[in-house]
Structures are given as C-alpha cells and as structure tokens.
Amino acid sequence: MVTRGFTGRGRPPGSDERIPPGQHLVGDFPVLSAGPTPHVAPDRWSFTLKVGPKPVKSWSWAEFNALPQTAFKRDIHCVTSWSKLDTEWEGVMIDDILAAASLAPPTDFTLAHTFDGYSTNVPIKDLIDGKAMVALRYNGEALPADHGGPARLLVPHLYFWKSAKWVSGLQFTDRDTAGFWELRGYHMYGDPWREQRYDTD
C-alpha cells in the first residue's frame, strides 16, 4: 500500500497531457502581483498601440468594448508551478485589435505595457492567429482588479507572467526587449512545456 503523500496530488483523468512538467493543478485562482493592485476606473482607461515610441492608435474603454468580442477557453500555467484548466475568458483578440487599427505587424516583437509600470516582451507570432487577446471578462463577469481588471493581456500558451495585468497597450519593438521580470532573471520566452522559467533554462 502506498499512501497519498508518496503519490502526489491527484489529477483528473485525461489531464496529464495538458499539464506541463513541474506543474500541479489548482482549483482556485491564485493572485500574484509584482506590486500593489492598481484600481483603474473605466473613464481613465485607454489602450494604445505604438510602433517604437510613436502612438498609432488609441481606444477609450467604450471604444475598446465596441470592438469584436470573442469567448476563449484555455488552460493557464503560472511560473510558480500551478496550472488551471479550462479557464473561460472574453475579450478582444489581438488580431481584431490590429485589424481595427488597419495595422499589419511592423516588427517581430512587442512589449506589453501596463498601468502600474510593468512590462513584458512577447513575440508577435505568439499574439496573432487566434493565440492571444486582451481579456475583459473572466467566467462571464467583469475581470476583477486583483486578476488584472479592467483588462489584461492573455497569452495562455506561455507562462502567465507574460499575460500582463492592467494592460494599457502594446508597443512594437525592433528587437526582443526584456520587460520587468525578464530583466530580473526570468526567461525571455517562457514556454511551460520546455520549463523556461529562468534565463538559465
């Protein structure tokens, strides 16, 4: 007989192929942030696309919510080792944001910027073709502030620090420019399936 403590945490049948190495399932939704939670009122919220330092298109909260909305169910994986399956989001796909700006990706790289000064780098190939969105709702309700509301970037196939909370815009960059955690030793890309947690991985 082997006790539960030696077998580890149980997993739902059929979920093993959905959980990257070194991860464990959670039923709740842990809250992790680099600093205090900002509370951004909708009338102060905006989202801006930049090419280098130049703004090329901005939306107010009302204008952004008038863009096409998409429902999105995905598994998410945090670098701190938890995974959560079948999370349900609604928001605006990055493809639709670029289409609304009549903008083809001018470079291969982006920096996501946020209202609290955070940034993270994401290659454009990981944002387009249905891979990522700016999420406005979670589980059918407005996104709460502690999970990045009123809007957060959602790039579910990368470690969750890439899904920047309180997102305020995307900036196209000529090179792969490190963001907040990448400057502090985290991996430049962050693929959960390759356990790319730190710059030495």
Please describe what this structure looks like:
The chain has 201 residues and is mainly beta. The chain has one domain: Oxidoreductase, molybdopterin-binding domain (Sulfite Oxidase, Chain A, domain 2, Alpha-Beta Complex). It contains three helices and eleven strands; from the N terminus they run αβββαββαββββββ. The protein has helices spanning 4-7, 61-65, 94-100; strands at residues 24-25, 46-51, 54-60, 70-77, 82-93, 109-114, 119-123, 133-138, 141-142, 152-154, 167-173. Strands 1, 4, 5, 8, 9 and 10 form a six-stranded mixed beta sheet that branches. A five-stranded mixed beta sheet has the order 3-2-11-6-7.
Overall spatial form: globular
Rg (CA only) = 17 Å
Strand content: 25-35%
What is the count of β-strands?
A: 11
Find the structural class using helix and strand composition: mainly beta
CATH topology name: Sulfite Oxidase, Chain A, domain 2
At the fourth level of CATH, the homologous superfamily is: Oxidoreductase, molybdopterin-binding domain
Our measurement of the CA-to-CA distance between the termini, rounded to an integer number of angstroms, reads 37 Å
What is the CATH architecture assignment? Alpha-Beta Complex
CATH structural class: Alpha Beta
Q: Unreliable stretches, pLDDT < 50, 5 or more residues?
A: 1-10
For the biggest sheet, the summary is: 6 strands, mixed
Number of domains: 1
- Which bin fits the share of residues in helices? under 10%
Counting H and I runs of at least 4 residues, what is the number of helices?
Answer: 3
